[in-house]
Amino acid sequence: MNFSQKLGLFILIVISTAYVYFSFFNKEGFHFDFNNKAPDSEIKELPPLVEEPRPAEDDERHEVKTIRIFVSDSNGKMRSVNRDCDTAIEKSCFTYAIKELIKGPSNWEKSKGFTSEIPAGTKILSVREGEASVLVDLSSAFEGGGGTESLYIRLEQLIKTAKANTKQPVYLYIEGKQANVIGGEGIMIKQPLNERSLDD
Predict the structure, then answer these.
(1) Given this model, what pLDDT does residue 32 score?
(2) CA-CA distance, 117 to 132, in Å (whole number)?
(3) Considering the domain boundaries, does residue 1 fall inside one?
(4) Is the pLDDT of residue 44 over 70?
(5) Residue 48 lies in a domain
């Protein structure tokens, strides 16, 4: 037996031995990983994309506007104080300003010496905002009590508050009638309300 035959016989024995081993002793049998892929157990799926929650279409967007009302400070001078008007709650920030004026200073403002000459019993009968003008109708309590000086101050509070919160001309009504003369003293009012409404 020459060398080549011996080499061939050796290779045949090695192949036969390997075949017997993998067939009978190795449970997995032959396994050749030609694609060099990771086992299925090692393949991890990417997590699904999580989108940020979007606001619902019917979420109510609103705006907070600053309105001004006028009161007197501890020295008797006219001063403006601010209020926040939430447009999601209030249909009209002008009407809200008149409501806040009639309500008067807050407790904190009172502690700082702010006062109002508008009588506590005053009620808003209506506020009508048209395309060309605004009508503010107040109860008769607005013109009662306090004397002439007090009446002038409350009218000035109303005039300044109205002018600070709308560019439209504002007319004052008392119990449904335009107030050209107001109070027992007969104070004349020039309308629409402006800085010269109380001039003689």
Answers:
(1) 47
(2) 29
(3) no
(4) no
(5) no
